[in-house]
Write the structure tokens for this entry.
Amino acid sequence: MNATLNANLDGALNGDLNGDLNGDLGVTLVSAARPAPAEPWYAVSVRPRHEKLVTRHLEYQGVNYFLPVYRSVRHWKDRRKELEMALFPGYVFVNLNLRDRGGVLRAPGVVQFVSFQGQPAVVPDAEMHALESGLHAGLRLQPHPYLRQGARVRVKRGALAGVEGIMVRRKERFRLVLSIDLIMRSVMFEVDEADVEPL
């Protein structure tokens, strides 16, 4: 799963995800170019609007990271502006051996590793793979309120083949909600109803 480095790492992360998302322009990927990871993925909690600052430091340290972002148009009385915003605000994913976590924790803006019973918790590979697959396929994504229950389905074909999630209907279209349980956040992909099967 090679990823391309987004050239605009220096842009400030403005706005918030509570506004109107109707102007969503799609998703890009901010990630260090890397081979398929041999180490597990972890979620790192960061200070509000510090995601890009953290990724610059991780890039400098040579740490594999993953920050999905999307573009959204915001409207003010006197202007419109296209903003690049974190798909999961307050989180950056890192791929490393835990022996090397000290450098991550020292990066400005990092709060802590998301932990369970005092130990950094691993983000399941299936969730990371599904998220990266959707982004690399250029699927339109947007944040969605966290979901744990609903009609569970599996995608049968296409870029997300094998991905499991919760099916929702919105404005006469079907969408697959992928939840990252560790950070209790969800993202929504548009899918064709014929491409999914119930579990």
User: Anything to note?
Assistant: The mean pLDDT is 80.
